[in-house]
Design brief:
Rossmann fold; Arc Repressor Mutant, subunit A; two-stranded antiparallel ribbon; single chain; about 210 residues; alpha/beta
Length: about 210
């Protein structure tokens, strides 16, 4: 499936979990589309891709749909993630994921500050950066989260790749040099805020006085 489809499925599941908590048992494609910011036709196509269909009378069963999306998105044995860079941003990421996703676990964190080695921060044990490759191999890490400064990002990714890590989430403000078969999800906060600022200014200038 394409990255866009996977992205939408993740959004659908988040919405569905919220609706499930509110006690909703069924919903129609147009309802899910309105909450996800898409169209009913697109929702139906996405769900057909994962082999899930609804009832013309009642729509999609929420709990069953959550399970169906989970079978696509979730690793059957759980996803093992390592984070590199335990500064303010890294700690915020650790805090966000603490207890949130049972089958997505940040199993180790790494930092160049030797004083952090051995400490447990937001439920995650920290290790020295020099142990990055060895521990990633031992723990079978599949995904790396990069929250180090730009100058250290490429070296961290190269080390993790040597240890078998093949997919990354990059918060560092730098373009990583990686082969096409390595997936990188860029999380450029500065660019995102600048983009929002541009449209805020544009919309403000367009308003009549």
């Amino acid at each position: 499936m394409t990255p866009k489809v996977i992205h939408r499925l993740s959004i659908y599941r988040r919405i569905l979990i919220e609706l499930q908590a509110q006690g909703l048992a069924y919903l129609y494609s147009h309802q899910l589309a309105a909450l996800a910011g898409g169209t009913a036709a697109l929702v139906r196509r996405d769900l057909m891709r994962i082999g899930f269909t609804g009832s013309p009378a009642r729509g999609y069963e929420v709990t069953a749909l959550i399970d169906a999306v989970g079978k696509v998105l979730d690793h059957p044995e759980g996803l093992r993630v390592a984070l590199v860079g335990v500064g303010n941003l890294g700690r915020a990421v650790l805090a966000y994921f603490l207890g949130r996703k049972p089958n997505l676990t940040i199993v180790a964190a790494f930092d160049s500050d030797s004083a952090l080695a051995g400490r447990v921060i937001h439920g995650c044990r920290c290790h020295a950066a020099t142990d990055l490759a060895r521990i990633c191999r031992e723990l079978g890490v599949q995904v790396g989260i990069i929250t180090v400064p730009a100058a250290a990002a490429q070296a961290a990714v190269d080390t993790m790749r040597e240890a078998g890590v093949s997919s990354f989430v990059n918060f560092a403000p730098v373009a990583l040099r990686l082969p096409p078969d390595v997936h990188v999800q860029e999380m450029d906060i500065t660019t995102t805020v600048e983009k929002a600022g541009y449209f805020a200014r544009r919309d403000g200038e367009a308003k009549p006085i």
